[in-house]
Give the backbone structure.
Amino acid sequence: MSIFRLHGVHLKHRKNTARMAPERMPIPSTVVIPMSMHIGAPASLVLKAGDTVKVGQLIGESAGFVSSPVYSGVSGTVKKIDEIVAASGANIRTVIIETDGKQEILETITPPSVSNREEFLAAMRNSGIVGLGGAGFPTTVKLDADVSKIDAIVINGAECEPYITSDTRTMLDDAEYVAEGIRMLMKYLEVNTAILGIEKNKPECIAKMREALSDVEGAQVKALPSVYPQGGEKVLVYHTLGRVIREGELPLNQGVIVINCTTVATIAKYIKTGMPLVEKCITVDGTAVREPKNVIAPIGTSLRDIFEFCGGFKETPRKVIFGGPMMGWAAVDLDAPVTKQTNAVLAFGAKEAVLPRSTDCIKCGKCAASCPFSLSPCDIAAAYDAGDAERLEKLKVNICMECGCCSYVCPAKRNIVQKNKLAKTMLRNYQMSKKEGSK
Amino acid sequence: MDNTLLVSPSPHIRSSNSSRRIMLDVIIALCPALVASVVIFGFRALVLTALCVAVCILSEWVFQKLCKREVTVGDFSAVVTGMLLAFNLPSTTPLWQAAFGSVVAIVVVKQLFGGIGKNFANPAITARIVMLLSFSGTMSKFDAVNDAVSGATPLSIMNAGGEMPSLLDMFLGRHGGSLGETCALALLIGGVYLIAKGVITWHTPVVYLGTVALFALSLGENPLYHLLSGGLILGAIFMATDYSTTPSTTWGKVIFGVGCGLITVVIRVFGSYPEGVSFAILLMNILTPYINKWTRRKPFGAIKAPKKAKEGKTV
């Protein structure tokens, strides 16, 4: 087990919606479904304008090994094939579907028959499931690993970001699915150890999951300190198994598969029903939202429709975030759709949205002291400003997971993690040019 | 309405801490010592402190205006410098000398190096040393201003011989010395406040004081008198913990404390100056960038880069 705890920051949890069971929102009149809601190649479109769709129908098929199919969560007619600018800044192809409100389910939806590893992986490939913690890495790719190299599964129930409670609700409302999913993973990946890590600020989840996992041999719940970022992959693996995922490694290199608890529950649901991933439980919160709640919405629902379902705004929203406040993306407008990875949408008024003014660094060292990975942000910033990529290499800026602890604690309100991101790019370019030069 | 959405990189929340808040906490922590200095040395203590603070703020403002830089007196760091400098002066210091010292601290030691966070030497301490060397007479003359307080400082009594004040008087500050350094009790209250507020960590003060006590003991000196004498507690809590001029890593703070402790005792016991705290901290200030580099934490899971021998050979 880990001797030393990795550092981090104590955040106000603001899990205001933890006790609110998700409400299913009415089907919106239109949905906008992006073809890229995962890491990897965008799905390739199989529909055209004018086509009718049903719930569970394929819209875009997986376009490569690292890719994921996209399905419709509504029934209706394809109005238009369009393009939007995602929060990441990339142009993404979308399908706009006008719903008919009938929610007719595709006749061919049947539970997949799964009895061995190959069938399980094939089912995963068709499920459209991606990492639902926010990363969006296609689950089938993650699970298609050499079983002889894996000896443990770590399930992420940390949910360390403030506000978000969608994983909390999964563990409380779908504990059996989480347990069933863990059982399947252990069976088909031939693993005897599974640890579900949950932050101590969710005692009811810990109790519920301990009970649900009591008859799953080899599976256990581990209570984690409520220190952000417990849910960071490397942090979680270190605090649950005591293993260090080194620079440039994946959890797989240390014999571990890390998977989000909602992803696990969704896997079990898919195997049981055959309905692919077409809707999400999303935490809607933030100071500008009138009635914060957990909402089940079809993927592709616009932010506007979701906030409207939550009573609209108390005050004019000035900043809207996909995900948590520490690592989430700021939305450009309210027409943006929620995607497979969206676990929360937060809206803030002017007071919270205003950006603090950066002042001179006072060398307090709080950034370095809060860094889970013991990086030295001050030195990294100096090296970046000097254009010294070689020093960035020594300072290991590439390890930075961009959790934002440094920016959060900075008393001078400097945008430290932003500079780390720039420094990472500078280092990557330098290393690439060095590689080319040595050829 | 949509166009009014603000887009910025994460994180979207920040802690409520700020540079100004930190400086305010230091000022609050210095207040018990300020009260003690007025009680011990009289109203003139307040006059000197107010003057140093005013001149520090003014010289920062004037310098930044003249250089067309952003005026940053609002961060209150000049107030801290002014208070600390005043606390390092005898209560009888002529006002013009105190004003001169304040200008040196802010303009020469701080602003000429780029201002807050960029100076390598502690402004108050360096200014005090400049004054000590420039005005040796007034800077080492501690007049009895109250009936209760004799002129000689414990350290000079220790060096020259004579009767030391009682330990209780030492602890409460009823003895000769600079304005803010004599009342150990008041300084310790400030120190506990700073540690509780997370402004400083315990490492530097505890290691500094511990090193002085142990080293003094090993030289056959009375460690308690060494701890309570001179500017040690003031320096250990408020000046050896200055952010920009001392190490930011935990082990760096430990090394810094040990180094300060050793130099302080060496100067006190073997040197010609009765007090060595200022010199000790200034000397360690110079080492700070190196200490920071030596004690940098190893990044989590970092793999050491292979040696660059290959590249060298091919050239």
Notes: Chain A touches chain B through 70 residues (CB under 8 Å).
